[in-house]
Amino acid sequence: MKLFALNLLLAFSWMAVNGDFSLTGLVVGFVLGHLVLWLAKPVWPDDPYFKRLWGGVGFFFWFLKELWVSSVKVATSVLSPNMGNRPAVVAMPLDAKTDVEITLLACCITLTPGTLSLDVSPDRSVLYIHANFAEDPEAVKRETKETMERRILEWLR
Q: At CB < 8 A and 24+ separation, what contacts does 139-148 make?
């Protein structure tokens, strides 16, 4: 976390030196600060900052793709009522353990059109999901675990 703060400090310094207090100036300063910190990586050999930052960027673009695909699927379902939605509530066992991991997973599921996180069991071992297209509930469970939960855990751990 300290490298992220240092990267932001370098970005704001870049903005101040150039007198460009815009989003573009922030992005350019952040990228240049990241490059400087990456060159100085031997100073912080065990810090997971670089892995987490690039993991977050990768997750962001993967999630945008998932949003697009599920939005098209829901729009197709709305426009062709004979598509045959088979909604179901699925109980998915969780590998996520921390509050941040569980919350991020639940939020991403809820943000994806066609799915909704309903509840987490009291022992935090099961997440209940409403899926609008659940022809095979086991496939919904398996797909969510193998894609979304796995990617979140790879990013945060």
A: 140/88, 140/90, 141/90, 141/91, 141/92, 144/90, 144/92, 144/109, 145/92, 145/93, 145/95, 147/66, 148/66, 148/105, 148/108, 148/109
- Position 72 scores a pLDDT of 93
Nearest to 8 by CA among 28, 30, 27: 30
Instruction: Please give the residue that has the higher pLDDT: either 110 or 43.
Output: 110
Picking from 70, 152, 155, 135, the residue whose alpha carbon sits closest to that of residue 127 is 152
Phi, psi of 122 (to 5 degrees): -55, -30
Q: What are phi and psi of 110, to 5 degrees?
A: -65, -35
Say how many C-beta atoms besides its own lie within 10 A of residue 142's C-beta: 12
- Residue-wise pLDDT for 108-140, tens only, equals 999 999 999 999 999 999 999 999 988 899 999
Sorted by sequence, the CB contacts under 8 Å of residue 122 that are 6+ apart come out as: none
Using the 8-state DSSP alphabet, how is residue 19 labeled? T
Domain boundaries, the chain: 2-43, 49-156
Average pLDDT estimate for 17-27: 94
